[in-house]
Amino acid sequence: MMYVWLIVGFVFLIKGADLFVEGSSSIAKLLKVPSVVIGLTIVALGTSAPEAAVSITAGIAGSNELAISNIIGSNTFNLLMVVGICAIIKEFNVDLDILKRDFPINIGLTVLLGIFLMDMGVSRLEGTILFVLLVIYIGFMIISARKNRKDGEEIKAMSPIKSILAVIVGIAAIVFGGDLVVDNASLIAASFGLSQTLIGLTIVAIGTSLPELVTSIVAAGKGESGLALGNVVGSNLFNIMFILGMSSAISPIAVAKESIVDVVILLVFTVMVYLFCKSEKKVTRSEGAVCVLAYAAYTAYIILR
To answer: Is 0.70 topped by the overall pTM?
Structure first.
């Protein structure tokens, strides 16, 4: 039954995130909030909701290894598998703003995460620093986007009652799903003698990254593969600043030595994908295949170690 409840937990997480984004976006639209602000805040936070629910719940429950490995695993999966699969489906050009601004910030945050982990944990102060960086980043993005505002796709608004109901049900589903995933992933790890770090880097990380993967594959199928990179970079930024910041601010997170190694590997992969993007201002099918193979090799490594 552990496996069944784990799957049920993922379903609640993903569906809850969808409802939360849809309801929140609708409320913002009814309140005349610009669509660009909605995209940079509510949607970005909503797609990171599964990771947030799992990591924050795990942190409060004392499952520190699961909390940090979920973030590292999700970022690695997003970077290699989401970008890789989308590039294989159709190679895509890279948005210059992402290349010049957001990707370097992503690299810098990964370095900062590695520095924070050097003392084998993330303190409340370090978590607060990450959260403050998130507020500054969102503020900067909103100001920048409003200066270069372009008319985008209109967001369809539901009725006020339906919007509020969607938000409430979405949050409830995310919280419930997060509890199920953490509890049953921990039980599965214990039953096989596996570490929470391994479970967090693989099963939990992949499960919580499903919204990003599905969204990007659908976009690639419609010939909009370029959305994959923005989706991945934005999600990875929020995973570190919002999720890890919030989790460690609530409860300091202690980590194992393996997590430091995993952050270094994540940094290498992040720089690799950045160089792919920078070389020809696009990600080719062959580079996408390299990303997928790199993830397969990394998965084999963490299972065997």
So the answer is: yes
